[in-house]
Amino acid sequence: MTTRLPALVVGEALVDLIADPDGPSRSHPGGSPANVALGLGRLGHPVRLATRMGHDDFGHLLQRHLKHSGVELTTGSVVDAATSTATGVLDAAGAARYTFDITWALPTAVEEALLEVPAVHVHTGSIATALSPGADQVLTALRALRASATVSYDPNLRPALLRPPGEERERVEQFVALSDVVKASEEDLAWLYPGEPPAKTAARWARRGPALVVLTRGADGAQAWWRHGCQDIAPVPVQVVDTVGAGDAFMAGLVSRLLHAGLLGGGPGTEAETARTALHTATDTDRLPAILDEAVATAARAAALTCAREGADPPTAAELM
Asked: How far apart are CA 319 and CA 321, in angstroms?
């Protein structure tokens, strides 16, 4: 069963140019928020993506890719400009290091459309919440949207595009405070708070607004943090092809399960506060409720399936059954 109103994802869509250390590059549609939208679409949710891409070959590639999985672009997302790219080189473990050619700013038509079409849930993160001038636009929009929709956030930091950690923390923490669910990797938190154990940061974030903070730990699985406790989530064994898009598949799987459970979601009226209250009530305990345990475990399976194939290729609902 899908939600009646769409989920809304706000953020960058770009093309990943992925190369093995000694091999040719390959073009894959990507961008962290676009990957989350793609994942939600494949899991059966109506979803809109508010983004920026060009009327060029890369932009056409992105549009076909997203449409095929049921993702609708917010009006004004395609502009007369070049589509952004990220060039990633894979290491021996299949992890990519990126350099970027990107412009991030929401087109005026997209800014206007964000507040005109209701959504049950809003997800954002990565470059969209870090790179000016677009990051400031996203923060302003999120403050307005959370009155009628629940919110999730994944910082998914790209240090090559960022100021020093001390200058980035305030904005990251503003997004955390506005969110109901946050996912972050150990690498994100180790960079943002050097010298502080990532688990300590996750615990602190869970006391500052979100009902649930999930810390992903690669091959070591994940940890779910909430105001009253922490629970380890076992890793899912997988033969890794590459890790591109794994965190985004995790985020999509997590949001999907929480939407189905009625612990995320909103729309006109008071529905968002109803779901938000239900999520906070579910985490008002020293043990992780079974529904949240299952949601995070499902997210881990989604990430594992993505790691088993090339590029950001999240699973369908049938593959997660």
From this structure: 6
Q: What is the pLDDT of residue 1?
A: 40
Count helices and strands (H / E) in the chain.
11, 15
Residues 6+ apart with CB under 8 A from 224: 212, 213, 214, 215, 230, 231, 233, 288, 292, 293, 296
Q: Which residues contact 290 (CB under 8 A, 6 or more apart)?
A: none
Q: How far apart are CA 281 and CA 279, in angstroms?
A: 5
> Mean pLDDT across the chain, nearest whole number?
92
State the pLDDT at residue 270: 55
**Peptide bond connecting 159 to the previous residue in cis, omega within 30 degrees of 0:** no
Q: Please classify residue 94 by burial: count the beta carbons closer than 10 Å to its beta carbon, then call 0-12 exposed, 13-18 middle and 19+ buried.
A: middle
- Asked if residues 17 and 100 have their Cβ atoms less than 8 Å apart, the reply is no
Q: What is the rounded CA–CA span in Å between residue 110 and residue 3? A: 23
Q: How far apart are CA 130 and CA 151, in angstroms?
A: 17
Give the per-residue pLDDT at 23: 64
Q: Which parts of the chain register pLDDT below 70?
A: 1-4, 20-24, 92-94, 96, 267-270
CA distance 9 to 31: 12
Whether 234 and 221 have beta carbons less than 8 Å apart is answered as yes
User: Around 308, how many Cα atoms within 13 Å sit in the side-chain half-sphere?
Assistant: 13
- Model confidence over 204-228: pLDDT tens digits? 999 999 999 999 999 899 999 999 9
Placement of tokens 């910082």 in the chain: 155
Beta strands 78-79 and 53-54 are: parallel
- As a dihedral over the C-alpha atoms of residue 146, residue 213, residue 173, residue 186, rounded to 10 degrees, the angle is -140
Q: How many CB atoms lie within 10 A of CB 116?
A: 8
Residues 10/50, Cβ–Cβ less than 8 Å:
yes
CA torsion, ordered 171, 148, 224, 46, to nearest 10 deg: -110
Q: What single DSSP character describes residue 42?
A: H
